[in-house]
């Protein structure tokens, strides 16, 4: 169900940005070189980290509850798409199928990624988002896009901390 403008990615890991000291999820193109860091809140980072580590909780977390509710409504999570970058804010869409009817849910990327991990569904990024991030890096920072990409690609498992895929 991938569109031609969507690039499939996987979560490479979760780490703390050394400059802002904020958590970020690092997405990497499957079979390609594109790398996309998305800064997330501490609670969302914790939800993603718990799923990376497959940590069980005594009670359902919010993303577990949402996955269970979707399944209870006889729907299936088809995919998650990081769909837009607007005013330095990423947007995502969760695609669902219910009895052949396709539905979408607007979501924060951090929530969409946490849900995708629990549903074991594919994650995509719109090509326009990857292009916009590369353009913003080239125009607004001293770090060149190739340098940022090399830094992100060069992160080893120790750099990623315990939160790696």
TrEMBL record:
GO function term, MF aspect, one: nuclease activity
Domain named BFN: residues: 6-137
Gene3D superfamilies, per database record: Bifunctional nuclease domain (3.10.690.10)
Domain of life (superkingdom): Bacteria
Pfam families linked: BFN_dom
InterPro entries: BFN_sf, Bi_nuclease_dom
PROSITE patterns for the chain: BFN
Protein name, UniProt field: BFN domain-containing protein
Provenance organism: Terriglobus saanensis (strain ATCC BAA-1853 / DSM 23119 / SP1PR4)
């Amino acid at each position: 169900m991938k569109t031609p403008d969507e690039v499939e990615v996987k979560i490479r890991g979760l780490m703390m940005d050394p400059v802002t000291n904020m958590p970020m999820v690092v997405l990497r193109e499957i079979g390609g070189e594109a790398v996309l860091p998305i800064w997330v809140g501490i609670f969302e980072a914790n939800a993603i980290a718990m799923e990376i580590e497959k940590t069980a909780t005594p009670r359902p977390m919010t993303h577990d509850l949402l996955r269970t509710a979707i399944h209870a409504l006889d729907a299936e999570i088809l995919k998650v798409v990081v769909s837009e970058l607007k005013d330095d804010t990423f947007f995502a869409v969760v695609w669902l199928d219910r009895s052949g009817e396709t539905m979408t849910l607007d979501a924060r990327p951090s929530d969409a990624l946490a849900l995708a991990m629990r549903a074991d569904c594919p994650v995509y990024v719109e090509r326009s988002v990857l292009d916009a991030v590369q353009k913003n890096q080239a125009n607004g920072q001293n770090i060149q896009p190739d340098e940022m990409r090399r830094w992100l690609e060069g992160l080893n498992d120790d750099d990623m901390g315990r939160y790696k895929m």
